[in-house]
Amino acid sequence: MADIDATGRSIREINQAVRCAIAEKAPGVTVKNPGARHNLAVAILGAGSIRIAGSVGYYCGGLGDGASIEIEGSAGWGLAESMLGGTVRVHGNAGSGAAAALRGGTVVIHGDAAARLGVSLKGGLVIVGGNCGYMAGFMAQKGTLIVCGDAGEAFADSMYATVCYVGGKADNLGTDAVVGVMEPGEVERLEETLCRYLPPALRKTKPRAASFKKVVSGRKLWNFDKREWKIWQEAL
Amino acid sequence: MPELQASGIFGAKVIEDIQSKAESGLYAIRGFGTLRERRWATFDDLTFLPCSLTRIPLEGYREKCSTKTVLGKRLAKKPIELDIPIMITGMSWGALSYNAKVALAKGAAAAGSSNTTGDGGMLRAERENSKTLIYEVLPSRYGINIHDMRMADAIELTIGQGAKPGTGGLLLGSKVSDRIAEQRDLPIGVDQRSAARHPDFLGPDDMIIKVEELREATDWQVPIFIKMGASRVYDDVKLAVKAGADVVVVDGMEGGTGASPAIFQEHTGIPTLAAVCEARAALQDIGVYGEVQLIIAGGIRDGVDAAKAMALGADACYIGTASLIALNCNKAIYEEDYRALGTAPHACHHCHTGRCPVGITTQDPELMKRLDIEAGAERVRNFLHVMTLELQMLARSCGKSDVHHLEPEDMAALTLEASAICNLPLVGTRKVFGR
Q1: Which of A174, A167, A184, A185 is nearest to A217 (CA)?
Q2: What ipTM does the predicted assembly reach?
Q3: In chain B, which residues have their Cβ closer than 8 Å to the Cβ of A223?
Q4: Which residues of B touch A (CB under 8 A)?
Q5: Cβ-contact A197, A108 below 8 angstroms
Q6: Can you give the pLDDT at residue B310?
Q7: What is the domain partition of chain A in residue ranges?
Q8: Contacting residues of A for B26, CB less than 8 Å apart
Q9: Do A120 and B213 touch (CB under 8 A)?
Q10: What's the rounded mean pLDDT across residues B112-120?
Q11: Which of A186, A172, A187, A169 is nearest to A135 (CA)?
Q12: pLDDT class for A227, splitting at 50, 70, 90?
């Protein structure tokens, strides 16, 4: 195990130390005293296990590919943005734009996620144990977005092919978002996913997969030449 | 027979526009750039004042006049070094065909210049054929890939584009082919709308953190450009510098696009001439002129425009539309196909349809074959070479041994507007109007 104390060190120094430890195949890296600093563990490439013992600022785990990052506090904006692969887990809450433009890998947030969760999602899996804020899933393209609690306003607005699941209230869907029908076996796969990624104690407190709503694109805004007057008026 | 009198307010084009909207229920989307008849000050409103008795020119065809261009000297460990200050701007694989992207890369490399990825990620063949490649990070983040980013020579964080500041791009379904859909993580055939703002930051304070992230992701090696559509240029340039840009790119309203609502191309942003003046003033006023480099874009057509932009304060210029024209855009070949689109050579702005008669703005494999990569690359190289020669000739005539030594006092204004905008004397008056 490699321990890196962030106290008094620049972000550049901290990230370089993390990368060195991973390159040297350390079995695990712990960043102590992160102090909610921005840009921690950015662009970590390749397999490796990183534990951050506290809260982080903006873009933690952003632009990464392959590492497993565990944040023992909460996270600021842009958590794991544009990540290609790997896993980022947050024990607390996440700020705006968590998993923005994610292309692959898995992001798990035990608590709540603020506005624009999974905006422009391009792939991968995002699971939120709590609620999410305004406009989650906006213009999401691919991948899966699971919210165990309530979805905020304008949920899943203007999506392409992302599939969303909401365990709590989803009363205020965004433009062109519709409630979908679970296909055979889909509830079981959802339950399996929740059990796999949420700690058992947390999973027990969340709704059963069978009670989740599926939300997908209504596909009525996919092409400009389709004149769905009502939905266009709602969009504008 | 009474004299026919058309309305000056509701002319033929306005009538057609209203009736088209009434019939289709759709606003107009098209490519290319503004089609308005010019009523604003442009580089054509300036003239050079070459040496006579007060100054001594360099030999126009012989004496050395450097065009070497270094960008990103402020914070990056590896600034980019180009042989010439004329670069190819970002145009996406998607908006452009594979052949067009590769031809631009090869042509730029042969001329000692750079090219830029665009809103769709990096094409591997583009990297392989580029000497210097700039990787754009746009609000949509289509195709974003850290491995590609780390292969780039510079990163360009794009906030906006001159043809459509304040809104995202479009790629209509006819161009979202299976390959483009895969690259952009989209369903095949959707009308793709790009986001107007970045998904993970909003204002300039957040952008400081974003720029730091990009530097961390690239080990602080390569320059970070910040590109904006020209609107409130004076203030925006200052904020870009505050955010940590090594290079600021300002794209004027004459800039092109593969597709956007026509109203944006016609009625948003400020002209390139005004933009370069505001940008220079901003850099000077905060004391970083020369430290932060300025690239100007938007309707640059030849070495003359480039020379005037540089004399006004730009360190380099981007070309987009002109490079496509070099590839044969709007050339009088395959004329039946222009007619099938309802247009003609020299008047085609149908990039959005994906039916480009000359194989540049299409994803149709058959149309794409009409653009031969090697021949296209040679035309791009030739065009960049000639632009550079034009730039050098003007610089030598003004007594400069380096094109970067061109300065405002090498020019005069031909119109009152240009005098006021550029802070240059109006010809024949020795007065700067508006001062």
Answers
A1: A174
A2: 0.95
A3: 173, 189-191
A4: 25-26, 29, 140-142, 144-147, 149-150, 172-173, 184-187, 189-191, 193, 195, 199-201, 206, 209-210, 212-213, 216-218, 220
A5: yes
A6: 98
A7: 1-92, 127-236
A8: 224-225, 227
A9: no
A10: 96
A11: A172
A12: low
The highest-level CATH class for domain B41-327+371-402 is alpha beta
Cα separations in angstroms, A148 against A75, A151, A213, B86: 19, 9, 10, 53
Using CB atoms, pick whichever of A78, A139, A225 lies closest to residue B200: A78
pLDDT tens for residues B356-404?
999 999 999 999 999 999 999 999 999 999 999 999 999 999 999 999 9
Q: Which residue has the tokens 């098209």?
A: B30
pLDDT digits (tens, 9 = 90+) for A83-131: 999 999 999 999 999 999 999 999 999 999 999 999 999 999 999 999 9
Inter-chain CB proximity A58 and B147 less than 8 Å: no
Of A57, A100, A141, the CB nearest to B200: A100
Q: Are B206 and A82 a contacting pair at CB < 8 A?
A: no
Q: Is A139 on the interface with B (CB under 8 A)?
A: yes
Tell me the C-alpha distance between B404 and B112, whole Å: 17
Nearest to A225 among B26, B184, B187 (CB): B26
The chain-wide mean pLDDT, for chain B, equals 96
Mutation for A interface: B21, B27, B146, B174, most A CBs within 10 A: B146
> How many whole angstroms separate alpha carbon B310 and alpha carbon B408?
9
Residues 6 or more apart whose CB falls under 8 angstroms from that of B39 comprise none
Chain A residues lying within 8 Å of B212, measured CB to CB: 11, 38-39
For the whole model, what pTM was predicted? 0.96
Cβ pair B92, B120 in contact under 8 A: yes
Q: What is the model's pLDDT at position A228?
A: 63
Q: What is the pLDDT of residue B60?
A: 78
Q: How confident is the model at residue A236 (pLDDT cuts 50, 70, 90)?
A: low
Q: How many CB atoms lie within 10 A of CB B242?
A: 14
Domain ranges of chain B: 41-327+371-402
The pLDDT assigned to B25 comes to 85
Compute the count of residue pairs across chains A and B with CB atoms less than 8 Å apart.
114
**Closest Cα in chain B to A225:** B26
Pairing of strands B224-229, B154-158: parallel
Which CATH superfamily groups domain A127-236?
Answer: Glutamate synthase, alpha subunit, C-terminal domain (2.160.20.60)
- Interface contact A105, partner B, CB < 8 A: no
A55 contact partners, CB below 8 Å, separation of at least 6: A34, A36, A71, A73, A74, A75, A92
Summarize the confidence of residues B85-109 as an average pLDDT.
Answer: 98
Q: What's B407's DSSP letter?
A: -
Residue-wise pLDDT for A161-189, tens only, equals 999 999 999 999 999 999 999 999 999 99
Measured CA to CA, the distance from residue B95 to residue B80 in angstroms comes to 26
- What's the confidence (pLDDT) of residue B169? 87
Residues of B in contact with A119 (CB under 8 A): 195, 199-200
Nearest residue of A to residue B138, measured between CA atoms: A101
